[in-house]
Amino acid sequence: MPIHDLLNSGLLLIGSLQHAAESAGRIEEIAIWQHLRNQWNFTIITGQVYVFEDYLASLDSARTSYVSTAFNARADPMSQQGMTLLLRELDEQTDPARKQYTLVIIDLLNFIADSDQYEAFENYLVDRYSNPPLAIAFFNTRQEANAWLNSLSEPPSGGNVLIGDEYFSIWYSRESGFRELSRNDIVELFLDDSSSNQLPPVAASFNTREEALEWLTSHPASPMLLVTIAGERYHAVYHKKFNRHTLHSLTRLREERERIKAEQEQQEDQEAEPSED
């Protein structure tokens, strides 16, 4: 089974186990499944799909233990509890496919421990709601980004890059060699959630974008603040990893939300229409 399908099936398994815990009222167990889902998200958003596939290929098929030495030494208590639940699921499950999906999540936990990524994972948990979405790299232009992508013998699979003020998803297939950058709206979702409350006061006003960016170099947002450029309000979002800011027009964000809402309503209307026999 292709690694993307295997990982997606593993995520569906986590969802079904979490749903079972919710139905049974096992509150503490729900938090454990959510923690394991976050480790799945971390692996995907950092572009490590094929790194994980190579890790799976390196495992000894004759191993006598499903839990790595590094996991026992490094894993946090919630991951330890998750491993216990997964091992129980693996032992009780009779369906071969479900056993396979359980084992891939077990090995995902081992992978994070064996590659010594717990500190990075903990930082991801801390930053995911209070800071802008994670990006692997930053480029000023699409041409620079495409040159970077095409220069790599093995690009990341999954994850995002920043091009100017916009996020792009990295699409790469090891099997076909296909690679592409596709714009996504993850920053719009972040800003929409972050600015759902009352907007902060405007921090500064400028005539041009260049003036705003120059001022922001010595006044970094944490993680964002509101400025005006030629009378238009913008979210100035600080990306600490790159020591750079992106600027996002509130007018454009509002138009984007209205467009998405209209598309959703149109789809709902179409689904509600009776089918003709």
Indicate the topology.
Layout lengths: L2 H22 L2 H19 L3 H10 L10 H6 L2 H16 L3 H19 L3 H13 L6 E3 L2 H10 L8 E4 L2 E7 L6 E5 L2 H9 L7 E5 L2 H8 L7 E6 L2 E8 L4 E6 H23 L5
Parallel strand pairs: 1-2, 5-6
Antiparallel strand pairs: 2-3, 3-4, 6-7, 7-8
Unreliable segments of 5+ consecutive residues: none
Order of helices and strands: HHHHHHHEHEEEHEHEEEH
The backbone outline, from C-alpha atoms, is globular
Q: Helical proportion?
A: 55-70%
The order of strands across the largest sheet is: 1-2-3-4
| Class based on secondary structure composition and strand pairing | alpha/beta
Could you characterize the architecture of this molecule?
The protein has 277 residues and is of the alpha/beta class. Helix content is 56%, strand content 16%. The protein contains eleven helices and eight strands. β7 (232-239) and β8 form a beta hairpin. The mean pLDDT is 90.
